[in-house]
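name: query_chain
kind: protein
chains: 1
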Amino acid sequence: MIQLINLTKKFGNFTAVDNLSIEVRKGELYGILGPNGAGKTTTIKMITGLFSPTSGRITVNGFDVQKNPLEAKFSIGYIPDTPFLYDKLTGRESLYFSGGLYKIEKAKLRTKIDELIELLDIGSWIDKQTEEYSRGMSQRIVFASALLHEPSVIVIDEPMVGLDPQSAIVVKKILKQKSAEGISIFMSTHTLSIVEELCDRIGIIKEGKLALECSIDSLKDLKAKDDKKLETLFLEVTAQK
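structure:
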């Protein structure tokens, strides 16, 4: 699971994340929403160890990200908002490279790659150089790389941006499957329909602070009672005063 405890990140005089506390439970898919500049990506970069917090703590699978960075990172599968691949490698070579970074034994890695090729439906182009890939194809390779070491936590920044409908269907299926397997998922997105379809709970942040947190079930009850769409609620919570 993931715990953010009084998390704050400052860049000079600017506070990007302000005393944020969130807990993502085992097997839960948690969606973080917020307008541009609200602190979503900064929060994700602190969870994955790319940024250090100014104050507060983060634990991943029981490991403190600052005190035990390697153990925490080995627990995480990270999918950034922009997929990066070495364009002269094939998709398969990219996966072997990623598996080597996680020190996965070669026979096990070969088996795992074969499983992910089938799961992500990437067999028809896995051996092409990645410079030939579309955004959706690249994103599926990045997803495969993130799942190779069987992480207990998945952290995703805007998973659906630039995906074709087929790739989006594959990604949603995998997220549901991994959540059902007990993996904790922390997902940042602007796509409100994806949040309603996939998430168990949501948090809306505004100016680095948690403005609203609720379960999807309670959100549906609120919508039925007040006849509000999530989009309307989001705009109300994040409105500038």
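note: The domain at 2-238 is CATH 3.40.50.300 (Rossmann fold).
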